[in-house]
Amino acid sequence: MEFVSGYRDEFLDFVTLLLGWFRKFVAERGAVGTSPEGCWWQLEGQIRRLPQDRALWVLHVLPNRSVGISLGQGAEPGPAPGLGAARLLGDEPPLHLRDLSPYVSFVSLEEGGEEGAGTEKVETEADGEPAPTSRESPREANPPREADEAQQEAGGGEVGCQEDRAEDEPGPERRKGQRSEAAPLHLSCLLLVTDEHGTILGIDLLMDGGQGSAGRGSWTQNLAPRAYALLCHSMACPMGSGDPRKPRKLAVGDAQLHRELENLVPRLKVKLAKTPMRTWGPRPGFTFASLRARTCHVCHRHSFEVKLTPCPQCGAVLYCGEACLQADWKRCPDDASHRFWCPRLAAFMQRAGELATLPFTYTAEVTSETFNKEAFLASRGLTRGYWTQLSMLIPGPGTPGHPRGSTPSLSVLLNGDPYQLLQGDGPALMPPVPPDPPRGLFGSWQDYYTWRGLSLDSPMAVLLTYPLTVYHVITHLVPQSFPELNILNKQSLKIHVVEAGKEFDLIMVFWELLVLLPHVALELQFVGDSLPPESDQQNFTLQRDDLEVSVRPGSGVSARLSSGTKEKGGRRDLQIKVSARPYHLLQGPKPDLVIGFNSGFGLKDTWLSSLPRLQSLRVPAFFTESSEYGCVMDDQTMAVATGGGTSPPQPNPFRSPFRLRAADNCMPWYCNAFIFHLVYKPPPGSWARPAPGPAPRAAPPTAPSAPARRRRGEKKPGRGARRRR
Questions:
Q1: Which of 160, 350, 646, 672 has the fewest C-beta atoms under 10 angstroms from its C-beta?
Q2: Using an 8 Å Cβ cutoff, are 290 and 160 in contact?
Q3: Where is there biased composition of kind Basic and acidic residues (predicted)?
């Protein structure tokens, strides 16, 4: 598949951007020890003429003493040694963080390692929340009166624990006790330039050798020239979105570095804050912005390197110039060229307005091409529970959650009240369950929100898109496409969720099916080789009793499900089963329905075996995609794997309202945006089942025909019988 915007981990795109900008910065910076007077005087004149940014800029100095980087086989040292830059920036980039496991891992440089690789001890207060920490510069402790001005304007100073880990961990989960043969590399310090809103503008990595050089003295030399070079490059070539610009004021997070830059920064006609910042705590609204530079579809160069323009005909694909456009236009084979796809992509772009038609009060913000998801979540206090699964930031020490890059086990996912997992730090988002079951069937978010008592300002649709899509398939699509199944009258349903991914991380949201379908006993079986192996063959039961939902280990699932009877007190159960294996290796009874979310058939080889397995079962199988382009690619993969196809995709009324930001194109991408079902190839020697449609018209009634005249010599029928009677 050529576009992977809706399928690749957002954090990997973020790391790719960091490494791409850093490699360009290193190439243009020159020697590390070069004096700024001799290396940057030409650039200074250009920066002085740049327009002024009204936002305050901050130069963060983030030391690291405990985490080392261990190179695996296949890692290629470069400007950012050990970070797998070549792997991330290649023609076939990885889709998930776990794909980087052979290339890079993180190890602890602390002796003993009781806390695990790269973890920290954080003191907690009585209420269980992390106590505020102060990471002042070891060089010089600032007086209490310092940093008041800079602290107020920058929102409190340095980046908190989440942001620190988001930058220091561009790779898979850290493995306790794992070390390569060579000594681990030490990222001794991270220089980071951001604005007061959290947009990253530049980054510099100060690498040391191994464990023995974890002290600060190894990176204090020539820190001012490197920081000044970073500031100049961040102004002339900002990493985040926007044109080159300079700040109206700059704050520095290190006392000695602040003194060394006092005579350098004014040369750029930039005002330096009077005092350095001395605390770490950012203001509540501070977060790393989701807005990032885009890339050319062909050469993958970012917008801070070249100017990107969309295709003049379809407006869907971004190119850096005529050369890349022509190369993509004439690509071989022909069905992979932009010449072949351009008319189709133009039609896909025309669906942007339809996909953005949603009833929510925040629709204009979340469906915009410049949607800042991180700022939206932070401004509404959606920073805990299941909302952390939508954020790019990594939870810090003491924060409930699981490490980025690994799939959580069921014990973690099922830990907590479903209502609490859906709440944020602000007001309650999910009202209690209505006492009466729904009357009629819901066909839109508007109808569901009205019955559920939700305000149209609530962002719950982002999480509930998965159970509501299942509900839509059961109540609308299956009766339309497979009326012979009579699915609305069934008392029990077995549903397979194939190649489960993000929906498994949000497994507790499926309890909403108990509210929407109180008359049906449901079993959801999550299947996929990306599920955690320790959860394989585990069974759990979600029980809804009045207004409460409880979780317990499952037992006797098949027996209760086959009976379809209600539990005592009118309670229904939702059975959850997990099979951590490809679908074609699954053994068990035939399901009533198969569902897959944002499948991407062309991105995983196991689909070439799973689709024939579904062909042999011939069960109704519905799948969602994040774009109409993905639906076309799935149809092609289905034809190659089985000889069948897919039904015409239709917009999902219960799609997620959050628009997914694409790096190399402008197409509208939404989670669960479109939905279709598999059309199986008819078995040999049989006729294909006619497509669903209206019943054939009955023939008009005709008058009864006159009885035929009896020939001579024929007996009247029934004469002998009358004589015998």
A1: 350
A2: no
A3: 136-148
